[in-house]
Amino acid sequence: MTHRKIRATIITGFLGAGKTTLVNHILARYPDRQFALVENEFGEVAIDTHLIKGVNASQLFELKNGCICCTITDEYEQVLLELADRFPHVDDLLIETTGVAEPATVIRPFLQNTDIREKYEFQGMVCVIDGLNAPDALKQPLALQQVYMADVHVVSKIDTLPESESLSLIRLPYGTGEMTDPVVMTKHHTAFLLRNFWTGHSHKPVLFPVTGDRLHDGIKSKTFRYPDPPVKEEFIEWLSWYLDLHKREIFRVKGIMRFRNEPFYYIIQGVGGSWEMTEGDLVLDDREGVIVVIGNLTS
User: Fold this and answer.
1) What is the pLDDT of residue 46?
2) Domain 214-295 is found in CATH 3.30.1220.10
């Protein structure tokens, strides 16, 4: 019998962006699904958990007085394992991070911990961006990490923007690029839908929306293009070496590859030095392989 995995989605975003508002929208949109929630708050008293509507209290896990990405990493992984054992009937897990969480550390257990990989199907990271205060908030290096590492962006507080302003203001961190299909959110509505943003089995995954090498102060992108398909084994060996060598500099790696004598495209996803490759659609054209790396790159 095939073991049913719990779908896991991480919701990140800088302080005050509207992460809890998005969680409540999701819970209201899917009343027939069984949800569990891991709520991480930076302080001794959990406030956000009292604002959540629609999750059984026994399936709401609080991580208090510390951040997942640093002081309570071990507790975070233990909670993920305990949750899956206690509530195997749960369909979806939502993980709401603190506004000051480094995204890579929150994702990493879903790539590196074999026990967690057996119990969860990672769906990707959603970044909530404060539409009203984005130009100021995105001056923070950590907020930029959250934006660049996310698989999808939800822009909040759109209903509070002056009529003269638009989403174009939130494109500033991408230099000459643009966000790829951001989802807007007001206090009472969003069109956001849960799906697999990480591997995107039913559609081509979205590559980073950048057109140049320099994205923002200290953050750069490097694009590797492969018009001629490489040998799969040789590529895996090279990418493993490259990401391990630069693991302290790399925030995110993502791409689509085709290989010599292979019938499928392959989807590359990773954070830091951790990465995975999953089978995608059949090769039906001559699209070149592309890998994009984002981080504090020096070479």
Assistant:
1) 42
2) yes
